[in-house]
Amino acid sequence: MPNQEESLLLYLNEAIATTRNKEGLFRIVTEKLRLIFPFDVISIVTIDTEGQYKRLFLRDYFTDLTIPSRHNNRNLRHPIAGTPTERILLDNKIQTLDLQEVAKEYNGESPFNYLIQQGVRFMTVVPLRIAGTSLGVMCLASRRHPHFEPADLSLLGKIGSLVAVAVSNTLAFEEVAQREREKSIQLAVNNALLSIKERGQLFHTVATEINRVVPYDYFGVRIRYRDGTHKAFAEFGKQDDGTFAPLDPDRWNEVPEYGQMEGEAMELFQHPAIYGDESFRRLSDKYRLMRYIAEHRNTRSLLIAPLWVQEDQTAVLSLSSKEEGNFDETDLELIKGLVPQITLTMQNLFAFEQIESLSAQLEQERTYLIDEINTTANFGEFIGQSPTIQPVLTRITQVAPTDTTVLISGETGTGKELVARALHNLSPRRDRALIKLNCAALPAQLIESELFGHEKGAFTGAVDRRIGKFELADGGTIFLDEVGELPLDLQAKLLRVLQEKEFERIGGRRVIHSNARVIAATNRVLEDEVAAGRFRADLYYRLNVFPVRLPALRERPEDIEPLIRFFLEGFTKKMGKPVRGLRERDLRAMQQYSWPGNIRELEHVLEQAVIVSTGPFLEFAGFSAAAAQASPPIPLPDYAPIKTLRDQERDHILAALQRTAGRVSGPNGAAVLLDINPKTLEARMKKLGIQRTVVAS
Ligand SMILES: Nc1ncnc2c1ncn2[C@@H]1O[C@H](COP(=O)(O)OP(=O)(O)OP(=O)(O)O)[C@@H](O)[C@H]1O
């Protein structure tokens, strides 16, 4: 062996043993090689253990050559089958190829075209083997034909063996380094998942940490539902300064068929995979969604890791990049290793967020319930022994435990609300809220927001988000009192909720599901309303599933005496008054009276009597026996509802506010019209739940 050769080999051997840094090492190798063989480009290509794919390990060039970036991409894998590399590995001999000849095999589409175009024609390929196994090839490409003597080839073979050792060391070293990075990223991500409770901040940290090892431009966790709907759970885009910022969930609104496009790509998101070159181009041919992100977001590679795949939904973590071939198998393995922890955290977050929304709902329900309890002082008992009311009570106890919609009809004061309460309390829903909405008490635009709620900013004056009564009644009962007064356009909306059990808040896009049992009441004859075109027939049939008609008090005179006793006992106790006697003539007069206000009227007559009486007998100042006898028991022609004082006050204030365009104080304010102090008016409005801004809109 000539001395020069021996010292070169020794030098390279030494460099391989002592140089840690890959780039430094290979620079030494190529410089020494170029002293012996002039070449323009050197590349080392490694093959995977199954000998299926090759991948660029290193490329260096020494003249004025330009190498397109995709030819320098170390993540791209190319199949070996049918390439010159395959033949050379099989022959295990150094060979010099004429690239123009090789190009013919590729039908002119040769991967070496860019070299040929720049005058590089020859490529000497040195197989790299270690311990009898092929590791890859070293290629020296040049413009001039290299003339190798047998001695040169033998030296090149020996250098090839040394390079094989260096490559193998480097690969092993890179693998260890990669494992280390994976471990550190796993630690950092787990730390974030365990310590951060807020969803946005948590996933921002996760996105930033993973990006340290696998750089990308987009990080997203999305949930896709079978019906084509989808939800962004956490999404971030890389900004110019390299940090991540949350993406606007509404950005897809500009794409009219986005929902459909998502639906078509559902299957794609069910399997972990990477797409980066040809594979990504194939995806964009197949899926409109992929074409869209390629064209409009410049996406060139994609990494997909499903978090969970269920029959009706798939949750996916996806990363994408504007670089071709940005992700490799190791990246996918790394992300797959993080999937269980991320999934668990998401489920925890879901549970946590659900608890938060449930407790907010409970709080709302509580407020309504307190309001309800305060506004309806009932004695919790239902008096009714008469043969007229008994069958009605039986029907009530039969229907109560079901989810059936009940329509209660009857004149004012016959106990419709009391029956609605009884229905709720006797049902399995008794532990959830009974939410009441009086359809006659509010102007149309307020009823809609009362029923369905509204989003912040949905209309002028919607300063806060408001949960609608249908939403509040989820799992409980909604009582639509005086449903016959509902304006026609709202009847249509109510019908939709009853049919589909879902609705949207005003100004909201999210569909809200409500499982509320509906009980409606009316003192109108709804059939007549339908005939007169004031009430939708379809809504009437939806509500009239189980009708309960409450008889007027005059139809059940047998109940008057027990009712009197019941109310007297209650009032005397409540007011701390002595028990006084009831004159026979007064009782008879009451039994003969027509009671247009029904039980409520009777209740009020007795309340007054308990207050004003001083002697041993109850005095009925506002209800004289003579007047009673003079009044024949005939029904009033129109059973107009008698409003409660509270409702009356509310309507009156609303009317004043409407006239002053919502203004409360000042010379043109409602307080002047109503002749009260503006502060007092504001306090009343608050108590009655009137929002001045809403009225003004
Ligand atoms: N059977 C009954 N036993 C005891 N109290 C009753 C009975 N029926 C009704 N009441 C009382 O009569 C009053 C009026 O009843 P309720 O408010 O339920 O009537 P309504 O039919 O809903 O009236 P409106 O149509 O005016 O809303 C309430 O104080 C209620 O507690």
From TrEMBL:
The keyword ATP-binding applies. It holds the Pfam family Sigma54_activat. The keyword Protein biosynthesis does not apply. Keywords: Activator, ATP-binding, DNA-binding, Nucleotide-binding, Transcription, Transcription regulation. GO terms for biological process: regulation of DNA-templated transcription. SMART domains: AAA, GAF. GO terms for molecular function: ATP binding; sequence-specific DNA binding. InterPro entries: AAA+_ATPase (IPR003593), AAA_lid_NorR (IPR058031), GAF (IPR003018), GAF-like_dom_sf (IPR029016), Homeodomain-like_sf (IPR009057), HTH_Fis (IPR002197), P-loop_NTPase (IPR027417), Sigma_54_int (IPR002078). Residues 382-611 form the Sigma-54 factor interaction domain. PROSITE patterns: SIGMA54_INTERACT_1 (PS00675), SIGMA54_INTERACT_2 (PS00676), SIGMA54_INTERACT_3 (PS00688), SIGMA54_INTERACT_4 (PS50045). This is GAF domain-containing protein. The lineage of its organism: Bacteria, Pseudomonadati, Bacteroidota, Cytophagia, Cytophagales.
